[in-house]
What we know:
This protein is 39% helix and 14% strand. It is an alpha/beta fold.
Amino acid sequence: MRQLDLDFVRDQFPAFAEPSLQDQAFFENAGGSYTCKPVIDRLMRYYHQRKVQPYAPYAASELAGAEMDEARARLAAMMGVDGDELSFGPSTTANTYVLAQAFGEWLQPGDAIIVTDQDHEANSGPWRRLAARGIEIREWTIDPLTGHLDPESLWALVDDKVRLVCFPHCSNLVGEINPVAGICARLRVQGIYSCVDGVSYAPHGLPDLGALGADIYLFSAYKTYGPHQGIMAIRRALGEMLPNQGHYFNADVLYKRFTPAGPDHAQIAACAGMADYVDALHQHHFPGVETEPKTRNAQVHDLMRAHETALLQPLLDYLSGRNDLRLLGPSDATGRAPTVAVSHARPGHDLATELAAHGIMAGGGSFYANRALQGQGVDPAHGVLRLSFVHYTSAQELDRVISVLDRVW
Length: 409
């Protein structure tokens, strides 16, 4: 099996050569990853050469529009959806809010939506607000000891009133990877739509959305090595059925139906750099292998996941072996993302502050997942320490964080 060439990977990220970041180990990637060089290069080129209104009949404008179209088309192809099923917005939170408004117009009083308490608030709060319109909100709750979201508990909530189920691919605190494909397939059989928050999963390898089967899948470009944009894939049948939220004269363009605000042209164009990065990784690790975008993406996804899983298990073993803290989520690396939250007698922010003094960049707090903490008996105001990494993290950095934890706690 091929192994990830970490030197090549880190060469693609200017942050690792930045003097001000030297001797710092970055463990708050779940809050936002470093940006890869192809994205930065495209953003700089756009602002230098193409910062004009796109799609007009002059060269700079044509190039600007072409790069925006390229980003949408290439990312969609890598994830197995049609180009116009992918749209960009200012953030995943904003994209979800717009979706909730569309569903709010379509649903009838007495219809039901199921949400979870494992989610980031972005895929929970906007849906819960629909209760004011007479929509019934049902909560699929996590196990208070393990944070696990049991699918059997979901089916106990489902009846003929349920129209939509919103849940995470994985939680930004629990980290456990939920069985999305199986859940979405069963929901579809019952005529129920699915909305999956992929923000905490996509940084660990862009998913095959066709295989997952979600009707809506959302994630954030700034956590997947790109600019600050929210990316949303919505199946055509659902997107065309829901009420248009964009300008009325754009209603026949699927990727414009749920973007009422003008998109950030430069950042959309720069998102093509995310596809450049995936292709560069594939070309380096699979030289001479010509294949379709979705297959390239899948092979890169597996390289990333294998590297992360190998690094994650020693950290989970170390944390599980301590009796002065509580590890949230599973202790088996194969079933979770490398987003690791621990509850301690000391507040999460205080722990992160102490680690910062030793060159460990980590986060402390509730991370917009107050309900997930409360569901596990943790006070959001007290918070947790979160250590999160991605495929560009090294074994030496993992050893370092464990060594520092041993010294400061």
